[in-house]
Design goal:
Strand content: 15-25%
Structural class: alpha/beta
CATH superfamily: Flavodoxin domain
Distance between the termini: 9 Å
Largest sheet: 5 strands, parallel
CATH class: Alpha Beta
Number of domains: 1
CATH architecture: 3-Layer(aba) Sandwich
Order of helices and strands: EHEHHEHEHEHH
Radius of gyration: 16 Å
Number of strands: 5
Oligomer: single chain
Shape: globular
């Protein structure tokens, strides 16, 4: 069974991407994965600074999240778009988790992992421009990012009162993304 770690690159309580990652986690479970859904608000870390790392060591939250990442074969990331790119929260998380750890190979939390990228945005492109940057960052640190992805535009209207996607075609495309993630993770592990 593929083990997938799922989270949104937003700490905002009412984040559209948190809604989307919850739906995606359910979809991945239906596809046969064991999914751990977390909230990055529970893993607060200072802005990465090499001097802070040298003087204070790794933040406790990064140590906990690093161990979780290593224990999962796949990542399911809902990535908000800020100014056509990746959110500072997601980039900072990646920066702390990519730091070398004694006894581990470089990039051990990322290398050999499979990831799927999804996004939701109030804009007409649904966060698509930011996904390009997230994909590039992850591929550069050894993550295989599946080709399918989903960008949900006009997010305030995309979800119903129960938090489900209103459009059946969009929900089906979400299922296709998660299914590709689960099948790829299962094959590679």
């Amino acid at each position: 069974m593929a083990k997938i770690l799922a989270f949104a690159g937003s700490a905002r309580r009412d984040s559209f991407n948190k809604r989307l990652v919850h739906l995606a986690a359910d979809s991945a479970r239906t596809a046969g994965a064991e999914v751990t859904l977390i909230d990055l608000a529970d893993f607060r870390m200072p802005i990465y600074d090499g001097d802070v790392e040298e003087s204070q060591g790794l933040p406790e939250a990064s140590v906990r999240l690093y161990a979780m990442m290593k224990a999962h074969a796949g990542l399911l990331l809902a990535c908000p778009e800020y100014n056509s790119s990746v959110t500072p929260l997601l980039k900072n998380t990646i920066d702390w988790l990519s730091r070398p750890r004694p006894g581990d190979a470089p990039l051990a939390a990322f290398g050999g992992k499979v990831a799927a990228l999804i996004s939701a945005s109030p804009g007409a492109l649904g966060g698509l421009r930011g996904l390009v940057h997230v994909r590039a960052i992850l591929q550069n640190i050894g993550v295989l990012v599946v080709p399918n992805q989903l960008a949900v535009p006009k997010a305030p209207e995309a979800f119903d009162e129960a938090g489900k996607l209103r459009d059946g075609d969009t929900a089906g495309r979400l299922d296709n993304v998660t299914r590709q993630l689960v099948e790829t993770a299962r094959r590679l592990n």
